[in-house]
Specification:
Strand content of chain A: 5-15%
Structural class of chain A: alpha/beta
Mean pLDDT of chain A: 97
Helix content of chain A: 40-55%
Oligomer: homodimer
CATH superfamily of the largest domain in chain A: Glucose-6-phosphate isomerase like protein, domain 1
Low-confidence stretches of chain A: none
Distance between the termini of chain A: 60 Å
Chain lengths: 444, 444
């Protein structure tokens, strides 16, 4: 079984000449990703990652994860961007809404922003609990996670002493260079490698994502198997008709050309909220350059039908919707009968809640179509590690193809440096003195 | 002290003839809100709410809140849209990131979507805890909260017996009609009234928001005081120069006319995440109609500088940013020194984390300005109940003004019904048989 792409309601004339050209461009882009002859081709390690990870590497991740899980009530992950969102997305998608898996530590994040109160409340809450830390950074000098790790390292060393602290800290970083690698070697931390040819937003299937996911108790083998199956299904030999990654790229580019500037990734399960956040980075950072790119936004339905629903139905006609539709829930819960029926819900009693949810989804699709909002639908049998693996690779591959079709380099992020440079200058970092002078006059 | 609006970097020529016209329109709109002579004028109860709530009403909310807090480990709030987002926004903004206030119950939500697994996991988690429920619905027949309440009511009655259950359930609903009011009267629940002249998205300062906020242990008097002060500051006699609600409405409408279709509400404190969700409903549902309206989106910085930051810096130039900037954190946390300084952060050691955060904010503003993203800044002394009250009223008033300037009725939401009608038809609700036939053929 695989996830399916339903583009019947995408309001795109797939038989048009324009779409033929888009299909050719998509297939050529897909070939470039495999032949590594396009823009940013030094960052294509993710393309064959699922099929090429070794048993030894998986085993190493799993055994480190077991050790951390056994010795910790809480594991704090210090990371930002791709070193945060991939793991967070999978943990939320596969986890219980209210508690960790049986016998597994609670997973928390830090170093994904600079809020002073959050850091204070985090450290206050750690007291009295068995704490470990996974720090994830290629360089070790990215401000947010480096700052959080500096604090967490001191906290853990104070609680456990330097020697035992070293057993509670795992670093995911560069294979040989950088501040974090140096620290890890000096302190004797267990380390995992972020491959040179995999950018942050494409790194969830490296130890960056796999280690936290394994610590939380989820099956990284199934996740990888799902991704590997999608890798195969979208391979260089796959025909367009069978390659849903290429199809998704074609449709969204066709819609963009029609003036649809916003793509709304919609879910009907709150567990997918952070998958949408991960997706926003993936597509926003890959395509948003040279004054181009679809703006990626997201909605959690049916919640947001009572919020952004009005805008979607009748606001500016500049958006289309991509819905992630999960067929079967994990548990069964039937709408109970109520003899009084004051709330008038007895007509749905004895149905499953998920059937009500599904009719909300289909009813919404039709309503939004009637309102002029094209619909793309990604159909998933169930929210399991295996299908999540498929979905992750599906989006990554579609993003690479889509970026090439847009004629940008989907694997760089030159605009992310601008705020950092300004921040360093304003903070008086040595070497930024001239810049500091200029900026200070602008903020007065 | 009041919150401040900084529009110096909004890239709008405020001295232009066009802006003069907008200012006049804003002042006229503000007058209409007070004189109740504009579109949707039957829903203007929110305008004078902060200054007109009685001591008796506040006391009643507070004493019910105390009782619930004393008798509960967990309070589940069943509500959706405006009956969910306002309370959620305030609870997150004022609460600790990891735990309830001392001696206060944990606050959870249900009935804000239709996820079957969520309901299963919620009920499973309730076992063994002292549970109460606040159900919030004008009609009592909105599917999501009605369904959740049907389940929660049965659960609580089973645990405590019908008589004691009635003491653990509080209904916030219509003053005399509707399914929930009927149920509450029959079962003997304590009830609070949702005023007829206050729509859902403007209801956070009614018992809809105030009761959950008081249960969680926050000061609703200060919240109301802040709102009342902003009500006065933006009153019918306030000059444009002193009315920041009107100014915000003018600037965002000027930007919309320039082709800025997306407003990004940005925060630098994760506690404001749900305030942005509340704001999205407020503006999206008020303005998104007649094929018009700015699309409201949000970002949590610095997290999302490593996600949507690239798009904001260099993508399509169709967006502007409104930043909520909080001056002082609640706690103090200094960046620690590290003699080794491998992470190169010693240049910021001995500074407060919030100073680093502030320089990130200012550096980002300048970077985004240089990239062509206009900036509006709402400056708040601290994230307290008082200033949050100001902020809530500020946005509500600005939204009413802005909607009138756009020449829409900011107080209706005709598009929200479309999906509901389809959902009922697809679920086979009696009375929808003809519609069912038509829709079934479309989803096959």
């Amino acid at each position: 079984m695989t996830i399916k792409l339903n583009i019947k309601n995408a309001s795109v004339n797939l038989a048009s000449e324009e779409c033929d050209a888009l299909k050719k461009a998509a297939m050529s882009a897909n070939a470039s990703l495999h032949e590594k002859n396009g823009l940013g081709n030094q960052f294509l390690g993710w393309v064959n990652l699922p099929s090429s990870i070794s048993e030894a590497d998986i085993f190493e991740i799993e055994s480190t994860a077991e050790t951390l899980a056994e010795t910790s009530d809480l594991v704090v992950i210090a990371g930002i961007g791709g070193s945060y969102l991939g793991a967070k997305a999978v943990l939320e998608a596969l986890g219980d809404a209210f508690q960790p898996e049986q016998g597994r530590p609670k997973m928390l994040f830090a170093g994904h922003h600079l809020d002073e109160d959050y850091m204070y409340e985090l450290i206050r809450m750690l007291h009295g609990k068995r704490v470990s830390c996974i720090v994830i950074s290629k360089s070790g000098t990215t401000t947010e996670p480096a700052l959080a790790f500096r604090i967490l390292k001191q906290y853990i060393e104070k609680q456990y002493g330097k020697e035992d602290a070293a057993k509670r800290i795992v670093a995911v970083t560069d294979k040989e260079k950088g501040a974090l690698k140096q620290t890890a070697d000096k302190e004797g931390y267990k380390t995992f490698v972020i491959p040179d040819d995999v950018g942050g937003r494409f790194s969830v299937l490296t130890p960056v994502g796999l280690l936290p996911i394994a610590v939380a108790g989820f099956d990284i083998r199934l996740l990888l198997k799902g991704a590997a199956d999608m890798e195969l299904a979208s391979g260089i030999d796959a025909a367009y008709e069978n390659n849903i990654c290429a199809q998704y790229a074609v449709v969204r580019n066709a819609l963009y050309k029609q003036g649809k500037h916003i793509e709304l990734l919609a879910n009907y399960s709150p567990k997918l909220h952070f998958l949408a956040e991960w997706w926003k980075q993936l597509f926003g950072e890959s395509e948003g350059k040279q004054n181009k790119g679809i703006f990626p936004a997201s909605v959690d339905f049916t919640s947001d039908l009572h919020s952004l629903g009005q805008y979607i139905q009748q606001g500016e006609r500049i958006l289309f919707e991509t819905v992630i539709s999960i067929k079967n829930p994990q548990y069964e819960f039937i709408v109970p009968e109520d003899p009084e029926n004051l709330d008038q819900l007895n007509f749905m009693a004895t149905k499953r809640i998920s059937e009500v949810n599904r009719m909300a989804e289909l009813g919404t699709m039709l309503a939004h179509l009637d309102g002029g909002v094209p619909n793309i639908r990604i159909e998933i049998p169930e929210l399991s590690a295996y299908f999540l693996g498929q979905l992750i690779y599906f989006f990554q591959k579609a993003c690479g193809i889509s970026g090439y079709m847009l004629e940008v380099n989907p694997f760089d992020q030159p605009g992310v440096e601008d705020y950092k440079r300004n921040m360093f200058a304003l903070l008086g970092k040595p070497g930024y003195e001239a810049e500091n002078q200029k900026l200070m006059t602008r903020i007065e």
